Amino acid sequence: MRRVIGSVVLTVLLGAFIEAAAQLPPEIMADRYLVEAERLMKEKEFKAALEAMEKIVALQKEHDLTLPAETTTISR
């Protein structure tokens, strides 16, 4: 019984965390995608890194963001 309750609580907390992350400002989301893209590049996951960068471009267009120069250049 405790295990079931623990699982339900964990699921609810995880859902709340995901919902909170979805409500972050677009600038912060762009930063997160950039960090993700850099990590994926290091792991040689180039297709996934490109997808993360495409998310940044989509955020930029949708919210008329001016992104820092670091966003356009992934470190190697």
Poorly predicted segments: none
Strand content: under 5%
Question: Percent helix among the residues?
Answer: over 70%
Give helix and strand order, one letter per element, not per position: HHH
**Strand count, sense and closure of the main sheet?**
none
Number of helices: 3
Number of extended strands: 0
The SS-based structural class is mainly alpha
Tertiary shape: elongated
How would you portray this structure in words?
The chain is mainly alpha-helical. It has a domain at 25-76. It is built from 3 helices and no strands.
Structure, briefly:
This protein is mostly helical and 76 residues long. It has helices spanning 2-22, 26-42, 46-63.
Jot down its keywords.
single chain, 76 residues
Secondary-structure map:
Elements: H1 2-22, H2 26-42, H3 46-63
